[in-house]
Design a protein that fits this description.
With about 100 residues, the protein is mainly alpha-helical. About 65% of the residues lie in helices and about 5% in strands. Strands 1-2 form a two-stranded antiparallel ribbon. Helix 2 packs antiparallel against helix 4.
Length: about 100
């Protein structure tokens, strides 16, 4: 009887070893978290994505009576957190340094 119970587990294990299905999340062992690669054409597109997330969140918060009643499954906080993570902080420091040198 135990042989029959182990067969699905063995088949599942074999399936998992054939192909690497879990490719979307990239593990960061330093802080025990995962990252998701985001392909963009450049900083302009990255800025546009973050800006649109922020605009959509602002719109939803301003019109919460109308908008959120029709789409209650949208989590505005997660959109805002995502937009915050997309902001290029290191690059902004560089722009500040370049701005100082220019002035």
């Amino acid at each position: 009887m135990e042989v029959q119970n182990n067969k699905p587990v063995a088949e599942f294990s074999e399936l998992m070893n054939k192909t690497n299905y879990f490719t979307k999340l990239k593990e960061n062992t330093i802080n025990n978290s995962f990252s998701v690669p985001l392909k963009v054409s450049g900083y302009e597109e990255l800025n546009l994505i973050a800006s649109n997330l922020l605009k959509a969140s602002i719109f939803m918060l301003k019109n919460d009576g109308e908008c959120l009643s029709n789409s209650s499954d949208i989590d505005v906080i997660s959109l805002l957190e995502l937009a915050l993570q997309l902001l290029p902080e290191d690059e902004m420091e560089l722009l500040d340094e370049l701005n100082k040198r220019h002035l």
